[in-house]
Backbone:
């Protein structure tokens, strides 16, 4: 198993740092999946995170100037690593004005993701900072739990096909509803579903507001596009697209 | 006194009286009634024995010709530096010695397990006014003793807490001692005619001093504090120890971690710094020393205030290292113990842990047998008998070999409770008074007991 990557562009580095900060806010421990053309941050430990799951995808070409990886085997050319997301974001924080950043998979008594930063210092001699982030390699047999979630056909009520979204909270004393109008509806994948649906009918789902808050608070930059899919009383699915990073977040309904 | 109380109630204003005007007059009144101390004894429900106190006070004046004293004044900008010194020393331990001498006013601090010592010496030119004297006693064959003043960090640190606002508001600051009452008085003269006074009780205790020959160290580095501060950013606040590894070609500051095999072990970080970033770079011997991170941070806090470069003097692992700042107006030295090299260091991680654990239990046993006596003189350095895993004070660690005291009489190490003290009965009485429960910073309190309880 091998992995080496390098970032030299300051803008790419900032973007990568922002993504890692966002992940750190959403998930304490996450899985990093490395494949030849993508990097994914996955959270699918449904029990520990209270049912929430997350899937974030980055095209590696958009970030890294050099990228080499070799998976477990030729047939399964992927690497799955488990790490504490805050460690990565803290390590990247020290790379603010770096000349270059290198990430590689190493084995120093235990598997590590080594982040090596070359800093330009005032006296013009470069300073090298290294962080060894401990990781756990996830064995092949557990890979099937970490696949990209399929988006179920959504019913849209409480957000309906006419582009209306209502966010409602209810407590014993008060009920507050926020109405959003004139939102777009993305074209549905299957035609059958759309024909059966009455445009006025609303789909609704009850979710834990703290999870929604955690998700929204973790956003570092405004996404260029955001899609919200609701499966009636089952799950809500947010799909955010920031330039070249896509983040999918699933919040299950409260039973 | 009663009139004051009624007036305050009428206004409905703050419960505490406005001190600036009342203070001096009420001080006079208080003295006639036997001093503040008796009142606070009443407050705690103990028998005041006012008459007895007065008698002892009279006895004190007969015996002591002139008590040791300190009186100094500084301007507003110096207050910040002084406060930073206290903050830095608070990282070392919970107790602070004020030690005036002809060289200047030294603030000293030693941690409980004797693995760290800090001393900041302010030279007389730092102050606008600086006066000090030793005491001469009639009994005890005219022994001269310095002001042996130990303060609790909890009392004095809050006084210098908001240094930025102090810097803006304080025009000058006066510090003087009242040995007859075992108090240090700190007065801030602020803008708009406001005068703030703090009384801190001190405990009679001879300061400990560590002699460390910096010139004999084979490795010396001098670096701007900004560079070190950038290195510190790498480590989390939970990091306990850091390692400094040097070769003639570069210097590496790295986190010093336990070897463990799981995900929860922390990130290992290191930073390499080239020789040209140092103001002075002399490496005689390649070495790696490990010391406590907290004290390094403490030293950095202080260096921010002085803008002077930090010198690091060290040798081989096990021998203490010194972090120092040398300025025209002050000299700061932090002497830290370093982790000693294990003979089995070259072996695999598991066996390293085991051997260190064994050593640590040996150390604890030997500590319980040995007393805490520290009497041998001619000390060169703090050395550590064994090499426990952690340096930092929350684990029982080092066994000190010796620490030399300042004055010539044999060293008395006063622990948290009332310690042993030199002969005279007067002194013993004052010791009892200056017990830890009294060591609280109090605003100059003009009130009767009723006011105290309301406040």
Residues:
């Amino acid at each position: 198993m091998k992995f080496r990557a390098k970032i030299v562009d300051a803008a790419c580095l900032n973007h990568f740092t922002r993504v890692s900060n966002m992940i750190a806010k959403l998930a304490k421990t996450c899985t990093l999946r490395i494949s030849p053309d993508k990097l994914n941050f996955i959270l699918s430990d449904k029990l520990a995170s209270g049912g929430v799951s997350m899937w974030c995808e980055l095209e590696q070409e958009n970030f890294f100037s050099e990228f080499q990886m070799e998976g477990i085997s030729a047939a399964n050319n992927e690497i799955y690593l488990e790490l504490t997301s805050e460690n990565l974001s803290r390590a990247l924080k020290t790379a603010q004005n770096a000349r270059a950043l290198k990430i590689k998979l190493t084995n120093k008594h235990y598997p590590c993701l080594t982040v090596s930063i070359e800093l330009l210092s005032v006296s013009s001699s470069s300073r090298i900072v290294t962080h060894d982030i401990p990781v756990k390699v996830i064995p092949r047999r557990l890979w099937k739990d970490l696949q990209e979630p399929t988006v179920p056909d959504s019913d849209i009520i409480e957000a309906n096909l006419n582009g209306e979204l209502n966010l409602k909270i209810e407590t014993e004393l008060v009920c507050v509803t926020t109405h959003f109008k004139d939102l777009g509806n993305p074209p549905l994948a299957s035609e059958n579903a759309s024909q059966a649906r009455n445009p006025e009918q609303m789909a609704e789902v009850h979710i834990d507001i703290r999870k929604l808050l955690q998700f929204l608070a973790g956003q570092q930059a405004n996404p260029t596009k955001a899609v919200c899919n609701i499966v009636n009383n089952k799950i809500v699915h947010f799909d955010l697209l920031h330039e070249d990073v896509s983040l999918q977040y699933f919040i299950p309904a409260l039973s | 006194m009663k009139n004051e109380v009624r007036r305050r109630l009428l206004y409905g204003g703050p419960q505490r009286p406005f001190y600036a005007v009342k203070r001096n007059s009420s001080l006079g009144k208080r003295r006639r009634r036997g001093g503040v101390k008796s009142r606070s004894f009443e407050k705690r429900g103990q028998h005041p024995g006012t008459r007895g106190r007065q008698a002892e006070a009279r006895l004190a004046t007969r015996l002591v010709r002139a008590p040791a004293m300190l009186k100094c004044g500084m301007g507003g900008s110096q207050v910040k530096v002084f406060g930073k010194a206290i903050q830095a020393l608070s990282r070392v331990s919970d107790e602070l010695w004020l030690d005036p001498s002809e060289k200047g006013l030294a603030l000293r601090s030693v941690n409980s397990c004797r693995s760290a010592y800090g001393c900041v010496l302010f030279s007389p030119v730092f102050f606008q006014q600086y006066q000090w004297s030793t005491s001469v006693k009639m009994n005890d064959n005219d022994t001269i003793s310095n002001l042996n003043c130990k303060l609790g960090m909890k009392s004095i640190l809050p006084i210098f807490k908001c240094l930025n606002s102090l810097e803006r508001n304080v025009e000058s600051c006066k510090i003087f001692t009242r040995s007859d009452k075992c108090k240090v008085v700190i007065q801030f003269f602020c803008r708009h005619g406001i005068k703030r006074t703090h009384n801190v009780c001190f405990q009679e205790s001879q300061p400990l001093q560590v002699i460390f020959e910096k010139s004999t160290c084979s490795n010396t580095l001098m670096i701007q504090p900004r560079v070190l501060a950038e290195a510190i950013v790498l480590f989390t606040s939970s990091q306990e120890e850091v390692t400094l590894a040097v070769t003639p070609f570069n210097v590496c500051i790295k986190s010093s971690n336990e070897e463990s095999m799981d995900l929860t072990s922390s990130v290992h970080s290191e930073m390499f710094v080239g020789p040209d970033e140092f103001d002075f770079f002399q490496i005689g011997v390649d070495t790696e020393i490990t010391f406590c991170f907290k004290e390094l941070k403490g030293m950095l806090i202080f260096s921010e205030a002085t803008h002077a470069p930090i010198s690091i003097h060290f040798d081989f692992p096990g021998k203490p290292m010194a972090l120092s700042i040398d300025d025209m107006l002050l000299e700061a030295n932090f002497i830290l113990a370093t982790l000693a090299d294990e003979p089995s260091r070259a072996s695999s991680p598991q066996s390293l842990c085991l051997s260190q654990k064994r050593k640590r239990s040996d150390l604890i046993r030997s500590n319980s047998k040995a007393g805490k006596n520290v009497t041998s003189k001619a000390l060169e350095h703090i050395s550590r008998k064994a090499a426990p895993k952690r340096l930092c004070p929350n684990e029982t660690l080092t066994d000190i070999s010796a620490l030399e005291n300042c004055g010539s009489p044999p060293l008395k190490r006063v622990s948290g409770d009332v310690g042993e003290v030199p002969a005279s009965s007067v002194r013993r009485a004052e010791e009892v008074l200056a017990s830890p429960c009294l060591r609280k910073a109090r605003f100059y309190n003009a009130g009767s007991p009723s006011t105290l309880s309301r406040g």
Notes: Helices of chain A lie at 10-26, 85-93, 191-196, 209-217. The radius of gyration of chain A is 21 Å. Chain A is about 15% helix and 40% strand. Confidence is low (pLDDT under 50) at residues 189-196 of chain A.
